[in-house]
Amino acid sequence: MDDGTGVGGGVGHGVWERGFPVRYLLVQVDPDGEEEYWGRCAGVEGLFVDKLPPRREVLTLRGCTPEGSLRDALAPDGEATALLGEVCVEVWDEEQPMQWWSLVDTVVLAHQPNVDDPGLVDVVVGAGVEEERQWQHTLPAEPVFKMFAATRRGLPSAGQCQRIEGLFVPRYGRPAVPLHLIGCEPAEPLLTALRRRRKDDHDWVELRALDRSGREMYRLPVHLRIETARPSVLGADLFDIKLTDGGPDRPSTAARPVWETWYRGVPATRNLWAPYGTEGRQEWLDLTTPDRSAPGPDRSGGVHHLDGRFVTDGPGLYCALAEALVGPGGYFGREWNAFKDCLGGGFGIAPPFTLVWHDSQVAREAFADVFPDPASELTYFEDIVRLLESRGATVTLR
To answer: What is the pTM of this model?
Structure first.
């Protein structure tokens, strides 16, 4: 919240008497949630970075018992698609997963009966392989590789296999992309880090982006590995600091214009998200946060109008639903499971209420070929309507 100085964040940082605003705070949070103020700065370059796709690899899934989308892809009738999309692979011991990978844009290249057990199948796939961390475990005596098909609604099983050839290979990390902190006024902890400036420092801080009123917009964890620090172009009492890398979790370049809109304050007009593509709309959703300051119980009842003209993709659906139920810039879930949770209460409104969905045909056509549950004949649009009605809402489609 704004503390009267035009700077937010909830930590003590004094007055900023300069001819340009503070747009970022640096705050360290300990394991107990205690915050320590490290500094503030006027700008950041290198914050928005597009993620490079993982390199394509060929993997062989040995001894598979396929289920769901993988089983369908191997069906002899040839009607099912070999394009599996994103697949999550987990290696399990007897009790729990030990490591997991994401296989991006997975496609079935070939398959044949397993040599040792013809009741099982060997499947050759091509995919981009992403791993959260390098494998550091010893494989259990009898590992089980479980596979899940990532969908909009969850992770239905795609079966399991005995081993995966090509999975355990070195994968070199992405190239470092520096982060430049411009016009930084360091507090004592950051001054100490600047003085020692060792390459093996392990300080982590949160880079907190502020809007022009000082309200916090976004938090990004940053590894404070300092490459260079020099007097700032904005004043000799400030520093320009170059970090070796800004980390893997930075927003994409599609977020830049979205952030500029939100910098002016929480949007008060509907459909400001509509001109953006799918990625930009997702970045819009990432800036929405639950309004925990609203006192009292959830409101119920009333008629709420959903402007369906721009509901052409998943993020657009949740942008429109949130605007209809809690207003522009509001949060009411960013995907199916979160939306379901919001309908359970605690986010400003709860059923029963009436939702009038205008221009519903736009969404019906956009999701006509999207079936979140392979066992159901409901499209994504129909599934959302069913979810609303099952929770006590009345949905009127127009």
So the answer is: 0.81
* 76-104 pLDDT, tens digit each: 776 667 899 999 999 998 888 889 999 99
Rounded to an integer, what distance in angstroms lies between the CA atom of residue 40 and that of residue 295?
A: 31
Question: In angstroms, how far is the first alpha carbon of the chain from the final one?
Answer: 40
Dihedral sign for Cα atoms in the order 18, 22, 26, 29 = positive
What are the phi and psi torsion angles at 216 (to 5°)? -75, 130
Which of 43-47, 169-173, 284-288 comes out lowest in average pLDDT? 169-173
- Give the helix/strand (H/E) hosting 236: strand 235-243
Give residue for tokens 């060997």: 122
Cβ neighbours of residue 293 closer than 8 Å, sequence gap 6 or more = none
Give me the residue label for tokens 């399990």: 92
Q: How does DSSP assign 102-148, residue by residue?
A: EEEEEEEEEEEE-SS-TTSEEEEEEEEEEESS---SPPPSS-EEEEE
**Residue type, position 12, single letter:** G
The two most distant CA atoms of the chain are separated, in Å, by 76
